Amino acid sequence: MTYCVGLKLNKGLVFMSDTRTNAGVDNISTFRKMYSWSLPDERVMVLLAAGNLATTQAVVSLLDERTKAPDERTVSMLEVPSMYQAARLVGDTVKEVIRQSAPVGQSADAFGASFILGGQIRGMEPRLFMVYPEGNFIEASDDTPFFQIGETKYGKPILVRAYEPDMSFEETVKLLLVSFDSTLKSNLSVGLPLDVLFYERDSFRIGYQRRIEGDDPYFRTISEGWSSALKSAFKSLPDFTR
Amino acid sequence: MTYCVGLKLNKGLVFMSDTRTNAGVDNISTFRKMYSWSLPDERVMVLLAAGNLATTQAVVSLLDERTKAPDERTVSMLEVPSMYQAARLVGDTVKEVIRQSAPVGQSADAFGASFILGGQIRGMEPRLFMVYPEGNFIEASDDTPFFQIGETKYGKPILVRAYEPDMSFEETVKLLLVSFDSTLKSNLSVGLPLDVLFYERDSFRIGYQRRIEGDDPYFRTISEGWSSALKSAFKSLPDFTR
Predict the structure, then answer these.
(1) ipTM of this predicted structure
(2) A240 is a domain residue
(3) Is B242 inside any structural domain?
(4) Are B229 and A208 inside 8 Å of each other by CB?
(5) Contact between chains at B222 and A237 (C-beta distance less than 8 A)
(6) Which residue range is the domain that position B10 belongs to?
(7) Which residue ranges of chain A lie beneath pLDDT 70?
C-alpha cells in the first residue's frame, strides 16, 4: 500500500508521502512517491502517487516526456495553462497507461493508481486535486481541505479533528507526522522514510523539502510524545458511571 | 458495515457493538449485533457478529436451536464443555450456513460473517475468540488482548495506545466510546445506538448491559470532550523546526 496526504492551508500547500512499495509482505522496496515540477517564479506542481508502481512510474515518465530525447522535451506539466488542465493531463495519462496495461487479460483494477496533485501557477490561486484511476478528479474545498490516498483510515481521525486552515507549516508537519505515525504503527505496507514538501502561497518555488528517516529525532519525539499525550488526553475525560 | 470490539481485562470481558446494518447507503436499518447465553453461576457467553445479516441471524438462530420446538431445545451453547468447543460450534455453524447459501451461484464472500465470542465456564478461565467466516478461529492473548470486527481501522490506534490490562470497567467503556466515536465520525455504515456488556471474571452472570443512544449525555461528553482533549494533546507536542 502507500500513505500520502496533500493539505491546503491559508499559507500554502503541504505534502507528505511514505516510501514503501510491496508485492506481498515478503517483497518490499523503497520508492519515492513524491514528484515535483517547477519553473521558478512561474509555477510549482507536486504530485503524490499511490497504487500500482508500474502505473505510477509510467504516468510520471510520460508527464516528464521521458519517451523523447532530453533536448526534445517540452515537459507538458510545465506548459499547461492552469492547474485544472494539469489535473486533466494527469487523469488522461493514467487512463492511457491503464488502458495499455489492461488488454492482456487481467483486471484493470490491478493496474489502478490514484494521485494527489497540488500547485500554483502565477496569476492563479494554489489548487489541490485528487485524481482517480478512472482519470476524473475532484478539487479540495474549504469543507474538505485535504486529500489522502492509499491506506487512509488509521490516520484520518486526527486530521479531521486537528486541522485548522491557519496552521503554520511547522504545526502541519507535526499533524502529518502524528497521522503517519498512527498509520505506520498499524499497516506494514506503509513505511519510513517519509518525504515532506512545503509550498508557500505566491512564492512560485518549492519552499522546503526533506526526507524524514526512521531515526529522525523529531519524528521519534512525535511518535513517543503522541502515545503519552494521547494517554493523558484519554485520562482527562471522565470515566463512565454505571 | 459494523463495528464490534471484544476486550479482555484482568477484571473480566467487555463487549461493545454498533447496531447499523446497510444494503447500500440508501437502505439502512437497526439490528442488535450482540447476543448472549447464560446459565447463572455456571457460564456466560457473549457473541458479537459482523458481516452478512442473513448469515449472522441464521448462525444465532441455529445456536439457539430455534429450528426446534421451544420445549425440545437443549441449546448447545449452554451445553458445550468448554469455551474452545463453543468457538468450534460457532465456526462450524457459520461454515454450514455459508455453504448452504453459496451453491446458488453467488460468491461465498457475499455471505461472509465474522464473530467475536467471549465468556467463561465455571472451573475455567474467561476466554475471548475471533471466529472467521471460514469457521476457524483465534484466541486473544496478552499480546493481543482485544478483537475488532467490521470497520476496524479508524478506531484501532486509540485502542492500541490506551488499553491497559488492569483498566476498570468504567475506564474501558470510556476507551471503547472514544474508539467508536472515531469510527462513527468516519464511516456512515457504523451507527448509533451502541450496545455495551460487561462480564466480571468468576461472576458467572452478566454484570452490566445497556444500550447507549445518540442522545446519551455521557456519550456526548466523550464525543465532544475527545475532540478538544485531542487538540490539546496535539498542541502539547513541540512543533517541527526547519
Answers:
(1) 0.86
(2) no
(3) no
(4) no
(5) yes
(6) 3-236
(7) 103-108
